[in-house]
Amino acid sequence: MPQFLRRPVPLGLLIALVAQLLFAWRLTTPHKLMFDEVHYVPAARQLLALDGPINIEHPLMAKTLIAAGIALFGDNALGWRALSTLAGTAVVAGVFALLWLGTRQLRPAATGAVCAMLGFTVFVQARIAMLDGFMAAFVVTGAVCLLWAMHGTRPQVWRRWVAGAVLLGLATGCKWTAAPYVAFAGLALVVLKHRRPDRWAGMDVIAGLAVLGMVSVAAYFLTFAPAFFYGRDPLTLATLIPFQLKMYAQQTQVLPPHTYQSSWWTWPIDIRPIWYLYEQVDGAQRGVLMIGNPAVIWGGLIAVAACALGWLRTRDVRLGVAAAVWIAGFAVWAIIPKSLGFFYYYYLPSIWLCIAIAVALNRWRVRLAGWDEAYIVLVAGLFLHFYPIISAAPLSGPRAFERWMWLSSWP
Fold first, then answer.
1. Which of 40, 223, 254, 364 is the 20 to 30 A CA-CA neighbour of 155?
2. Residue 26, by phi and psi: left (phi above 0), alpha (psi -120 to 50) or beta?
3. What is the C-alpha separation between 351 and 126, in angstroms, rounded?
4. How many CA atoms lie within 13 A of 407 on its CB side?
């Protein structure tokens, strides 16, 4: 490895650059709207025109970013999806940063970032104008800031903590499913500060929790600013809170069955992926399947179990956190009041699997005797194998998808 890549910033930037190029390649295929873009692109257009409320079941932040892409690059496939690629790159870079801050080692940081980049879910969400990609980017980068705040002078600690709170608030302003991560951050502060009082120097627990709560809530409500300038039915300070109740009613309404619906407990084993696209478009049969890389989605479960068992035996904080973040991020779906579930709801937990994989491989690297490199080769090999049906590449015909259907429930 060249000497300059033996430092975290150059290596992290290089991985981010590779991710951005990968996500942006052939981004405008298909040229038509696919899957939930049919909801969010029209909502972004309305926001750009400040016309009036639409798609009110979700907050505005992610739709505002889609609108910004349209304003920058035009109302076309590039404009719809351009900023989603940046969100995907932020996730990859954020995974690298989380692992570097948590382990102070380049190997696990690079391993986790590569798993995120080639794990399918980040790739697919980085190439579609949906809310989840932006939400995940804010959650991951918010977590980076909060972890970074564990070290530094008192002013640095507070600046980083406030930045993390802002980013978590913006994440919730994309989708409400980010809100539990504010609570997770508060719980982590309480537990880790008790264990290591020297962390977050100069910030006591009560003050940290208060700032986390107030700043994240303020950032969330600021995401509704464009709605105050609508030409039709604008929000006001008096209607801002009642509007949240309308959103909640929309979120919890009972919906009719959907072809691709799935129960939350099936997501970790990848039973029912989702076709975002499968049709004749742009002169060829093309498909975009939202699915997890089998090596990451299934191998990650083994890594979570290994981290959890390792923590029980050794009380190693890194192992415990790597297991806990996935367990908490997945378990919350058991209580979220949604009448229908879809595999893409598993997006954030699929990212946390990459953390567990990197931590587990690093912890037992000597015992694995080189098999960690073989694992990364497997991840990359599966990415290349599935690439045609996650990237809208031209396929041979309507039944071409059968080549990649490992389980009978996948088609």
1. 223
2. left
3. 13
4. 10
Binning the chain into helix, strand and coil, the percentages to the nearest 5 are 70, 5, 30
> With contact defined as beta carbons under 8 Å apart, do 352 and 329 qualify?
yes
Q: Which residues contact 170 (CB under 8 A, 6 or more apart)?
A: 61, 138, 142, 219, 220, 223
Alpha helices in 202-268, H assignment, sequence order: 205-222, 237-251
Beta strands in 334-384 (DSSP E): none
Name residue, tokens 């932020």.
Answer: 90
Give the pLDDT confidence score for residue 411 in this predicted structure.
84
Q: Which residue has the higher pLDDT, 122 or 370?
A: 122
Tokens describing residue 233: 């039915």
CA dihedral 152, 157, 163, 164 (to 10 degrees): 90
Q: Model's pTM, two decimal places?
A: 0.95
Instruction: Give 29-40 pLDDT, tens digit per residue.
Output: 999 999 999 999
What pLDDT, on a 0 to 100 scale, did the predictor assign at position 4?
62
pLDDT at 377: 96
Q: Summarize the confidence of residues 185-203 as an average pLDDT.
A: 91
Q: Tally Cβ neighbours within 10 Å of residue 253.
A: 10
Torsion of CA 84, 88, 89, 94, to 10 degrees: 130
355 neighbors 326 (Cβ within 8 angstroms) = yes
